Amino acid sequence: MAALTHLSLAEARDGLRKKAFSAEELVAAHVQAVEAARGLNAIITETPEAALAAAKASDARLAKGEGRALEGIPVTVKDLFCTEGIRTTAASRILDRFVPPYESTVTAKLWDAGAVPMGKTNLDEFAMGSSTTTSHFGPTENPWRREGDNRPLVAGGSSGGSAAAVAAGLCLGATGTDTGGSIRQPAAFCGVVGLKPTYGRCSRWGIVAFASSLDQAGPFARSVRDAAILLGAMAGFDPKDSTSADVPVPDFEAALGQGVRGLKIGIPKEYQADGMAEEVTALWEQGKVWLKDAGAEIVDVSLPHTRYALPAYYIIAPAEASSNLARYDGVRYGLRVAGEDLNDMYKKTRAEGFGREVRRRILIGAYVLSAGYYDAYYLKAQKVRTLIARDFEEAFGKVDVLLTPTTPTPAFPIGEKEDDPVAMYLNDVFTVPASLAGLPGVSVPAGLSADGLPLGLQLIGRAFDEATLLRAAAALEAAAPGIQRGA
Amino acid sequence: MSLDKATVAGIASLARIRVGEEELEDLAGELSKILDFVEQLEEVDTENVEAMASVAAMELRRRADEVTEGDQRDKILANAPEATAGFFTVPKVVE
After folding, report:
1. Which CATH class, in words, describes the domain spanning A12-262+445-456?
2. How far is B55 from chain A (nearest CA, A)?
């Protein structure tokens, strides 16, 4: 039998049910893995005691034959989900001692399904970044290195800690959040599956807000099947989130077996971006062949406003962030820095509590929302967003799923692109359009770059049609060579 | 759009973030660069296009106006940097 930390979530679930090993053994192996991998800085707060206690409870249930969907399965949670009694930092100094008195809906659902909490994973501060280097707790390292080059690489972001934890075998699955690519891009960089569901599919209640019209929770896993299982547990209507969709949650795992025969896969020509690595183009071509060989029909489509997605995003997301982050004022929770008067206290608290990128985005957001500029920036961006959503609607009149690269390049060394915010933003050029349209997207590990780093292909689906998206993802996964990290 | 130091200082004041005089120059440069990037949107014809109000085609639900999670004062105050006698406390604002 493979080491317990190398099992897929589905294999571990089945092994627990057959009593091939106990939840306590499974969790203990992962607690050890977490300790051994502290150098990656993937986890901000480890919860080994809670994990072992939960494992014991799971074993008791399994013994009675009452195991739930994720009974005894070790998972990590992005430190943006509020967890009752467990520090939740958003990787920010301003929340570094915040202990939520309540549990987010998504994590409550995971625990109700029997999942075991291993810890809270690192992220870019307030999920603002593409590299997990803006964290107050330091950068997360990608478990992968280039061949013949020992420099530590970024894990991607903002959910870099979750992606690295799954890739390094510290857990069997993880939660992330995706606002403009924060699940899909780190999944591609770390060689794992990352799925951003349709906006409204998973409740946002109890997730520290970044850009409320875009934020969406989703799973990381080492296989498409595992991602489908996790999504099934995380998804569902929640009256506490006014934008939660009251739609049925299908059996995503069951859908996987249906294959892609007869599906139409769209190839949007605008995703051939300037500066894209040649190997990324080659992999995209290979992806088309794989899906065609599996019985799908490949159709060329056009999404003419693609190039305007990123600039629209960098108006809308900071605008919403500046509004959401107004709550950090040193009064009700979080850091307080004393000042001469109330206003001075606010200003010092926010100057010292927020890091550089967060301050930059709040300022851009405040500017584009300020009197005289609102129409020129924010309103204009929301109009462009309508056009981007329309492009997708038209494409989905002709095809069932879209295939694109996830990122223009593989992971880069920690420290690169730090001086140039716009260069960093370009990481998300292929993931942002689906975010603006609220559509589900998944990154599937599909190959290796010339220097041995994972590359991902992205599939984008119709709203609330994650089942078809996952079918196509499973077909890609089956055709792609399994990628293995060097020892 | 190129922002000058005074404009940046004004935005920072609106956003209630203290920015030192020595930081203004760099920040003005960084923010101007981001604005230059987003201004590509001017090329897009948005005549007669509605601004998106909600990405999901849904109506906002209403609920009964009922207290569902009351009586949690102490839990709510537990994370306050300063609290006295069941209240959040702030520096004096009324002379």
Report:
1. alpha beta
2. 6
